[in-house]
Write a structure and sequence with these properties.
heterodimer; A: three-stranded antiparallel sheet; 6 strands; 44% helix; 16% strand; B: 481 residues; alpha+beta; seven-stranded antiparallel sheet; 11 helices
Amino acid sequence: MNAGDQYPNPRAAQDMPPGSPSMLPPGASLGPQHGPMPPPPAPNGPSMPSVVPIGARAEQAFDPPSGMAWVRVSPKLTWQRRITVLLWALPVTVVGAFVLSRTRGLAGGLIWLAVVLVACAVGWIVAELSYRSWGFAERADDLLVTHGFFVRHLVVVPYGRMQYVDVTAGLLEQWLGVATVRLHTAAAATDARIPGLPARDAAILRDRLAQKGEARSIGL
Amino acid sequence: MNGPYGPGRPPYGPPPRPRFTPPMYGPAPYGYGPPPYGPPPKPPVHFSHGVHRLHMATAVINAVGVVVIAFVLGGYSLLLTQTPDGVALVLTPRIIARFLAVMLPATVVAAAIGFWSWWSLKFWISGDDLVVETGILRRRNRRIPLAHMQAVDVVRPLVSRLFGLAEVRVELAGGDQAETKFRFLGRPPAEQLRAELLARAAGLPGHTPEAPERPYWRVGFGTLLGSQLMKLPVIGALMLLVALLAFGVVFGEPGVLAAALPVLLGLARGVVAPLVMHTNFTAALSPDGLRLRYGLMETRMQTVPPGRVQAVRVVEPVLWRGNGWARIDVTVAGYVGDRQALSSVLLPVAPREVALRMVGLVFPGTNAEAVPLLPAPRSWLAPFRKGEAGTDDRLFVTRRGRVCRRLDVVAHARAQSVRLTAGPFQRLLGLGTVHIDAPPGPVQVAAEDRELGEARAIVESAAGRAHRARATDIRTERWAR
């Protein structure tokens, strides 16, 4: 692989010789000892107009690291979300329908019921979509977590940066036998949590992460 | 070799230059040492040995505080009597006796509280830890690993300055409870404690004299005043105030005062408060880190040891650019909540080159200006918002803002995590935002609206560079060893 290969645009290759600081380093420079290779750089330079359909790239951006697959969470997460939706819908329906049928008559109550039903249906579908969006991958030096259906997220947390890991399980989660693993770093913005893991797996994952964090721990 | 903050004791590599200067024997030459008249100076306190308490005056100050509260809450009303003309202050023996009957026990209680609060706090240095013990009946023992210390401040509020006292604050990373205050110590002991804590944290013996410092920059009052006035919101508020007053005078309408008052208060908050806070701002470099001194009413001496700055922002408001001024905000992990607002400025105003050189000192061996920046792609949705981002092996830099230009810098070695987010609109346009997460603070670095494929590549490269940077990062916990 020579420099020309890394920069398809020959001018870019001249402007930025290999090894010079650049936005888009050659993937090879990460070295094999740092875990699996990251995906190859996008076919085009960073600021050049794209010829690949945008949709395809947008999906690739949240792909698992090359050579790995996202570890998916338990499908019980879907049911956890759905039950939550129902638990919210029940009082909202009763109170809203009661108030509206008093003020607007029976029609008002029925319309309210229909609105809540539609909202429930949307929640039902979103629960499934959101469950499918969750995934994590343990690389040699960092943990990748992806989630989000409307707003997509990808978080890369180095093990050495983890302050602590905790496992939480609410009442509903306990009943379903799942738990949430949450990673804390010194940055509050790091929102790395993995919900809907079977309780045993969650405990094992927590111990493994804590162990890896301990081995690579550094100060701030 | 240059130390992290300029020449001095090199932190690593070559053996440190001894900081300990041998004591001078025999009579000091003329012009050196203490003056031969006056009372002999007290021997300096060494905090490395023995158990220490706060200054005795702390008890008195606390007691006076309690007495004042008691007076305002209860004692004051006892002095007043209801007369036919209204409430009046009539001092008859009976009223004075009644007043004293309440206030004397209150004073005794206050004295006891003051003494108790002074007596119950003890601190000492044990090994690499600072130990603070509070309480007598319920003892609470807190060990502070000095290696994790983020900053040491010596604060002198106006009242304590009158008594020659100072407060020492030790900042640790980890939330609101992570601050340890010593209020109050005498001024020389406070500075001695600070020096000893820093020496200990650096891995040197505690009796090491304070590291020498080199002045770096001093902000003149005129510059500070000008910089505070030359801001668009301030000028807008001033114009509004003038317009309101002119309207009031022309039409003889005193009602505008009701509108002018909030504007005036806003100006006081936005101009006078920072002005008073940052008066006499000096930044100095020492092997123990950056030393900042500032304040008119309340003086602060802040020391940020090497490697404690997490992220830096160079701000250039549009009106400052004519003068080439810039301000530096920083995120230091220790400062949380309102302490953050008080201590997040590294330079309130300085020429741009000076500010950028300061950034180079904070992240040694880097040059934020030299990092090549690439603009984010323009799109029909956001034709004007065009941030730039770039990275080299040490730094991640973004620049954004057309009116108020901001340059955000974070070192890869300090990054906590890397995130890629893409909202629904962004995904429609194939864009995403890359965040390089730093501990909570005024500076949060994000490369906004990058093309998604590129964004993922940035994430991967940042993660890899952060890993390598951490591996090669000079350990800053014991910066002198």
